[in-house]
Amino acid sequence: MKTLLCALVLAVLLFSAPSRLLAQQDVTYDQLVHADATPQDWLMYGGDYQSQRFSRLTQINRETVHSLKPAWIYQPSHPLPPFESSAVVAGGIMYVSEPLSTVTALDARLGTKIWSWSAKLPDRIYTIGVHRSNRGVAVLGNTVYTETLDAHLVALDATTGAVRWNVHVDDNNQGYAMTAAPRVLNGKVIVGISGGDVGIRGFIDAYDAKTGKRLWRVWTIPAPGEPGSETWGKDMSGTRGGGTWGTGSYDPELNLLYWTTGNPSPQYNGSSREGDNLYTDSILAIDPDAGKMKWYFQFTPHDTHDWDAIQVPVLFDETIDGRPRKLLALANRNGFYYVLDRVTGDFVTGVPFVHQTWAKGLDAKGRPILLPNIEPTPEGTVIYPDGHGGTNWNSPSYSPQTKLFYVSAREVGSYFVIGEPKVDFPSFGGGGRNGLPADESYGAIRALEATTGKLKWEYRMLAPAETSTLSTAGGLVFAVTDEGNFFALDAASGKLLWEFTVGGASAETNLITYEVDGKQYLIGGSGNCFVAFSLP
Amino acid sequence: MRLAAVVFAASVLALNAFRVPPVAGQDTPPAQASSTAAAAQAAPPDIEQGKRLFSQNCSQCHGADASGGDGPDLHGVPASLGDTVVQGIIRRGITGTPMPASYTLSDKDAANIVGYLRSLGSATGSEKAAGDPAKGEALYNSSGCPVCHMVAGQGGSVGPELTRVGAMRGAPSLRARLQNPGANLPQVGEGVFGANRWTQFLMFRAVEKDGRVVEGMRVGEDSFTIVLKDAGGKLHGLWKPDLRSLEKEPGKSVMPSFKDVLSSAQLDDLVAYLVTLKGAQ
Predict the structure, then answer these.
(1) Cα(A92)–Cα(B141) distance, rounded to whole angstroms?
(2) Catalytic residue at A317?
(3) What is the pTM of this model?
(4) Which residue in A123, A463, A481 is closest to B196 by CB distance?
(5) Tens of pLDDT along A291-307?
(6) Nearest Cβ partner for B17 among A118, A127, A432
(7) Which of A310, A450, A521, B83 has the fewest CB atoms found within 10 Å of its own CB?
(8) Which backbone phi and psi does B54 adopt, to 5 degrees?
(9) Secondary structure class of A105 (helix, strand, coil)
């Protein structure tokens, strides 16, 4: 009897211990709209539709962050840098993409691999001017959506990794490639395209999430005769570009999708494309039901410095001059920080956030006022910022607590060299760029007042880094240096609070945070390591 | 049961996963269509044009007459590597070294440069150097060089190893460095400092919170740490946030200048010896 009682007690104890069952669940559109209500998950690229990359979790905070330690490390199946993924976590399962076109599901507590799927890629893939990497997945229902390097969109079963459908988005033999995280809306999967450097004609596509059927395509380059075609010189032969290789943001109330576009081609020689070259280096606001552009704003007309506008549009609301505004902030590769009205696309403000030597400033409509002698030359013209820009594709973050915009700023210039205006695939470029000595450049995490772009504080790094930032309700900002140092700063003051050296080149993953079984984790990659940190 | 099924499915999938396609170019200028390359090779190179292009694009590192500078002597290189390989290097650079890719030179341009290099013959700088290598070797040993530098496993570890210095640098840059060791320091493409053009052998002065000063040559650095090697060859690993100050000292070097120590003829002899050092690492 006593033995039986003991066994019973033991059984009760065993079953009341924390469950080891993974709480896998379907992700609903409603959950995505209210992502801030479930901060334990990290449901999408950018954290929420506003792309604020801000977490409401507070276990890791200003007081506790000093004891943050690695919990586990995952190394990708094909250890080839660059490892640039931004993970998605739902119900204790992490979905991470790896180079070249692999998706892996992990137990988010332990790092154990549950399944892994790799695209069957052709022997030869064209990725000219494109990183041979993948930047993340999207999850809706029990399906994981991923793009492949050879320009397919694939829907995978979230439990097994089995292929539900696989559609061919465009022809890789013409230079079309895909590396971004898709954006899922209500029943739709939205994707962009890479290859703007080799003269593709850029577009944004929507696909039915259930079937993979294409619903619409919005071209980023007008056809001859269409509005905007007059901004491409005499004729449009051989001059294209306007890749869409980032992941857009979305305002569910306005039902507007915000997607950015890349450079015109050939990127360093503009002689064959006189004019503004719409809609390159722009942001487009798209009605996702109609598949129609509502407005556009061009950051860099007639770009000859490879300043793709593929930076993350961060949506936030703030009162300016007593008037509540729906705003959109974007720190651009061209060195300027922009604030736009996201209802109308009107320019609100714009200031340089790094040293720049190409524009006197922006006019009342946000158009750059050019300085003389900024064009690439055969000997090379030194211009700041360099071709990788004042910041690149890596996500910034916005904290609604501090109302600051945290961005990785790159203080570096380069020689811009002009060459023949080649656009015949697979030639590209029409020139190139050569770096300035590294000891004359540096990087910094900068905190800007979101509504004005005014510098509040900065934390310097040795080298110009291509890192994301992640801000949290714990009063922290996380980032990674180019040399693989993970670190945490006080979000209000910029003071260093924690550092851990992982090392490894190309620390370009976007940092995320989530919580499982009462434990908060920070995740990011450097070199071939994808490291989860937690408190002991 | 369900977990077992998942694991089984995962392992089946994993079997299909290990297939890495060959890598085509990324962020590098692609080779042009092979027909173009063949056409470029078929036509005889324009040596005058090659000389002009060399002067504009290559001479800064490889010297006005291709005898080397901070980059290696190129005499005899097309003969030993083959024209196609050298043309490829001119177009695409060498990853991990300061040799950059060229965005402006065509295959035809590269063929003309290689034609010019071939026209120079293969007598290298060491064979044409003004000094006497045997006298130079004696001077190397009597002037104290082995105290700090290692050649083929012999010598000190304060300064850089010189085992292959004749393959890496040309006579003019070696002569200049003997006279003014801290000036115009070379920049590396990769290595401990990552993928950019970092200055090698740069001197730093660090002041710790308690006032102690550490001065030395940078051997490693990231955003939070730096390792300096002092004049005695001792390594100091420093945590930057704990430092009172950290300053670069451009122009300075641990190495003394031999400008007023050796005569011009002796410098020639020493350089003539150094350019013979092409041993394996």
Answers:
(1) 67
(2) no
(3) 0.86
(4) A463
(5) 999 999 999 999 999 99
(6) A118
(7) B83
(8) -60, -45
(9) strand
